[in-house]
Amino acid sequence: MWNFIWLLVGIVSADIYMHNPRGSNNRLDEKGRARDNANRMFDSQNNDRGGYNVGNMYFYQGSKLSIEWTNQHSCNNPNNHCEHIIQYMCGENVRDGSTVSTIPENPSQCARYDCNNDLKYGMNENFEHYLKCRLRNRNGGLFTADQKVGPKAKNTRQNPNGRRRGYECPEERDYYPYWHPSPWRDVAVLTNDARRCPYYETESENVKGRYYCFIPETVLRQNMYKGLSIPNNEDDCKKFRWPENDRTNGVRGVWKLAPSHGIPAPECRETEFTRDNHLGNTIGGNPSTYNWTVPNIESKHCVLRIRYNISTAEFDGWDGSTNSTLNKAKRGVASQLDLSERYGLQKTDAEKRGYLFKNNPSVQIFAGIAPLQLAINTAQYGRTFQDRSHAFAIKKRPDDLEGKTIRNVNVRGKRGNIVQVYPAVEYDYVPNTLEIAAGEYVHFQWTGSNTNPNNNDGQGLAGTDRSNVVLQRVQAYPEGDAGRKANTFGHWGRSYPAHLDNATFLDMTRKEQTKLAFLKDHQFGGELSELDDAGTYFDLGPKKVTSTGTSYFMCTRNNNFSNRSQKGKIISVPFVSEYSSIGWNGGTMTIGDRAYIQVPRGAFVFLQKMHLEEWTPAVGEKKIAEMGRQKPYGNDYASNFIVIHPQTKLTASGKTFNVKMKLTGSENNVAIYRTNADNFATWTRIDAQIQNQEANFAVSEGGVYIARLQSPVGLIVGIVVSLLVVLLIVVGTTCYLRRYPAKWVAIKSRASSFQRSFQTRI
User: Fold this and answer.
1) How far is 410 from 701, CA to CA, in rounded Å?
2) Is 178 within 8 Å of 136 (Cβ atoms)?
3) pLDDT tens profile 565-576
4) Handedness of CA 620, 621, 622, 627 (dihedral sign)
5) Between 72 and 94, whose confidence is greater?
6) How much is the average pLDDT of 662-691?
7) What are all long-range contacts of 489-492, with beta carbons under 8 Å and residues at least 24 apart?
């Protein structure tokens, strides 16, 4: 569980910023670079300059959305333990509000004595959530070091004084999984140690209900300032009476079970590697990303949050001993955490030399020499950061989009050069490289702001965000051109748009391309050369992609030297594909009912970026022919081609993962073959179980897999032909040696010499 189990030796300061969807970092629409109110909605612990101004969007049920973020301190790195928790919440009163002021705690300060419905104020969690947190006793078993922490759930080691941020509950924010009911639904848990995944999956509120002490809300509201305390355990709840001196007729506490959210457990896997003190990309130059399938619900008011917990494991915090028994001694000045063994000292000597877990200790690292003071704040050891999106909607799909794959393409970033916008980012498309199958839908949609600082660099009207999408002119030279001295990967085209009079872009009509370029169907008047008179929000709606090929596109406005370059690429392929990251905890990948991969827990040692493709026989044969290779043995295809990337060995020694392929023809006399898509040089037969129109087999590597029909007659003919070839070779060799006996003597002599030489070497 987060926070109370961690010890960090070293100063801790970190941030996390969500870039898609646009993270708020508690901003609304401030014109300055810094937010005006860090306590408006939630406790982020982030730099005041982070976040994006308000702008709302919607996403269709089941569509694919790339969540992108940067975190300051490392993940999947020996220097630091890191965990990311991604969650969402929907509710009728979830909103951004219209003022940067924090929603009041006292209902008398809200319109109609109802803060939940006072739309002036931004709100995620509602008033009842915070009221119960404010009155509920905190978990007294937590490790709080030498911090003087208040008695309620609003008081934590990280927030000892119980400062309020919106209606967030500090204890719920700082600890995961939380032990009381929460409105947040888990999406994913990303951890350095995937062996904790079974715990996170079974303890998630998605699948496991939470007990709580029920006291009527009217009683809580009427007595919120009168010393009422809500018990946090069953025994104390059953003893609860209010008023306390009325043991007969007073209100009684009832220990109740709040049911789980009734949705699948969160995906749990390893985090991706990031550097210390680097709000940047992961290995390979890509941002930290989680591809979210938007839930199948309908709501106008939702919000997404990502929490980031960091720590350095100076001792094993999961052994159960790091709890309140190690808190500050009654007469001492430090926690009772024993650091002596860590540093090879006797306990009394360690205490004398300042090896104590407390704020700013003076440590005598050399005996008899003056000590050095360490900059340590125990309130920030095992520290949690977070960011939340602005409100968005989840829409029901139109009937004609039922069962279709929709992939969202958005715009991240804001106006300004990298120094002016930091720790936000400059403009880019999200994702800026998208692979999509012909027949799937792409949904272009983005939002911006008119209240950026007026002196931030950029084109067009000062302070404004604007983006568009225009097809680029053809490349000056192709990617990876072998005729050039240097590799040219990444060259997507020139910084001039194509002539749309005679160019096509993703099968769009001229009207659709015009709308993407000018952000309106028709614009009569106004300044549009730099999109000044267009709005901050744009939505093309889902667009079906029917042809194949690669399209390179750009934003004509955000393409100058100070904040370039906003360019994207969409690769439309003639086959279906899916991407997923699977690590030690295992996982599954599917393409409809035609292909299924199941990786058991422990099969992979490291996080693998998996890519699953399905080719029709026509596509597969075309690729084989382009390589000048032969088809696998057999008479006809009994399935589509299933391609698993990476095509190398993926599993730990002795481990395998399972693959299922749907057969498209007869299941009689079917064989499974594997090859590598890079060359199709050799085909290897794979042992498989064939039944119920399905091939099921275990493998340890990726590659191309195909089912082929084997004709019994063909097999017999093949065997006979092979035997005849062998017989002809034997007969021919015998006749030759009889005609030239000297050759036989020479062969025997070489064989004898080779045997002697071989024995000598051994």
Assistant:
1) 35
2) no
3) 899 999 999 999
4) positive
5) 94
6) 93
7) 492/552, 492/567, 492/569
